[in-house]
Amino acid sequence: MLQRGSKLRNWCRSAFFLSFVSASAGAQVCDLVRVEFNGCAGASLPAAIDVNVGDETITVRKQPDGAWEGRALNSFRPSQQTLSVDLPNVRTTCHVGGSPQTIAGGASCRAVFSVRCESLWSLHVTNTLRKKTPLSYRCETEANAIRACDDAPPTAATIALVPETPLTIPPVGVSQGVVLGLTAADGTAIEYIVKEKTLRKLGKTVKLSALPPRPAVQSAGGSNPFLSALKTQQALAFEHIVLTWDMP
Amino acid sequence: MRRLAIAAVLLLCSAAGRAQEFEIFDPNDFIDPRERGAVFAPTGMRILAPGNPFSIVRVYGGQVSNYQWRDTPTGADLTFAHVVWNRYRDNRQFNLKLTTYNVEAGAHLPWYRGTIQFARYFAIPTNRALSVGAGDPVRAAGRILFTGSLEQNPLRETNVRSRVVDHEFGIELDAYLRTTRFTTTGSVVWTRRVVDDGRYADRLVYFYRGPEISKFDNRLRFAANLACGGEHTDRWRWGATRLIATTSIDLPTAGGRRLGTVNLAWGPSYLPGSATHRTQRELAIYVDRTVMAHLGALP
């Protein structure tokens, strides 16, 4: 019983010490800012980037270890500030929270911001025949998609695609797909989910009929070989739709 | 009370899945008529626009180890060929299936089977005043499938039964159900086959199918079905469970047409009625190919 009481006392002391240490770390005031970009290693990011921390704009420069660092004019508590950044051709998470990190053996600290990012890509849809083709498009956003501050994903729209005017869908992140919906003359609906990863394998110019359409309705049947064969047959009506893509 | 009974039936068939796959190599052939452009009337049973008719012929061939014949493990290895013709028109579907087996000498198995199926689809809208097209929400949708099949009597060479042909028939309900809280699909199958003169075996099975996972631009696919149910001969024996896990790899295309798909299927099962062979493992490797698919014009 006495031993158990002693153990409990030691545990309480440890918990108090840990909470004290973490509270003091959280309360630290730093002026050095470190930004780590995750997910867009392929994109060539500038050597110097302006980031917004609270109301202040700070220029961070690329370091040999792959992160960007800069110094703020005014010291701040990292846990109380968020960072936003606007980069060309890249989508980044918005209002990223900071965390303090002690450096120089605890003598000073830096605010670390870990920013998720991804490259952008653009889709162009061309109608190679004279006939107008009704086409709808929207951006498919998955649950873990990056929510950017500025470059909003394309809103859903329906157009009549004509040969003279190819459709350019505003840039979306590489993790996102563009949902293209077509309606045949007889009312049959077909949907495609177009992803940059898929198009990259197929080439710079891809016929829409080369992609597998997906089921258009919610029902008791899921994907099966019979439905796939039907969708392939339906897709033949849209061989005149050609896709091209680029990374802006 | 009637509403409660309907809700109970819908709930019973509301976990996920599509049935009909008693054979390890026979996939589901469900195509909602709205995928063909059909529009259902607000009642959900009739259609206002028929959609394009669609016909398809598919062939299958391969080998099965420890073939499971109608929930009965045989321990036999066999090769098979299977041809299916499906016709989808309006809110109806018609299937013709022919199967032949090359069985080991002494195995009590049929060497042919013919199956006819007829299905009628339905789609009940969330708003009972509106018709249901491809983009419209539904409260429930699915089909009811009637099956009749004839097969060679597996005991024809014994003195147990002298008939040449056995028959089987069944009813299947595939349903998608959407409530304010959840959305789900499922299948309930009842079949009856003759086991002796004037005696039948009944099976009641519930099918659950997990989501299909695809990789490499849909060229590699994984799917799994889980069936639970019971069989009645002298009495009901419940708890029979069967899993069919299938890996499918698309072969390359030649001349614009796909050469086919290679499938590897694994079917472990648990049979409460058997004292000595309660767990079984069925394995199949087979190739399938669509030999004809025709999308008709609107009538």
Notable characteristics:
heterodimer; A: 248 residues; alpha+beta; 7-stranded mixed beta barrel; 4-stranded antiparallel β-sheet; 3 helices; 15 strands; elongated; B: 299 residues; mainly beta; 12-stranded antiparallel barrel; 1 helix; 59% strand; globular
Describe this structure in words.
The complex is a heterodimer of chains A (248) and B (299). Chain A has helices at 2-26, 196-202, 225-235; strands spanning 30-38, 48-53, 56-62, 68-76, 82-85, 90-92, 96-103, 108-127, 133-140, 157-161, 167-173, 177-183, 189-195, 205-207, 241-246. By secondary structure, chain A is α+β, with helices and mostly antiparallel strands. Chain A starts with a helix and ends with a strand. Mean pLDDT of chain A is 82; it is low at 16-26. Chain B is mainly β. Chain B has one helix at residues 2-12; strands at residues 39-40, 47-49, 54-65, 68-69, 72-73, 78-89, 92-103, 112-125, 138-152, 165-178, 183-196, 199-209, 213-215, 220-232, 236-250, 253-254, 257-258, 261-270, 279-295. In chain B, the strands form four sheets. In chain B, strands 3-6-7-8-9-10-11-12-14-15-18-19 form a twelve-stranded antiparallel barrel. The N and C termini of chain B lie far apart (43 Å). Chain A binds chain B through residues 184, 186-189, 198, 201, 212, 215-227, 229-234, and chain B through 18, 27-32, 34-37, 39, 49, 51-52, 54, 56, 58, 86, 88, 123, 133-135, 137-138, 141-143, 174-176, 178, 183, 185-187, 209, 211-212, 217-218, 221, 261, 288, 290, 293-295, 297-298.
Number of helices of chain A: 3
Report the uncertain regions of chain A. Answer: 16-26
Distance between the termini of chain B: 43 Å
Poorly predicted runs of chain B = 6-20
Rg of chain B, alpha carbons: 20 Å
Which strand order spans the largest sheet of chain B, edge to edge or round the barrel?
3-6-7-8-9-10-11-12-14-15-18-19
For the biggest sheet of chain A, the summary is: 7 strands, mixed, barrel
Mean pLDDT level of chain A: 82
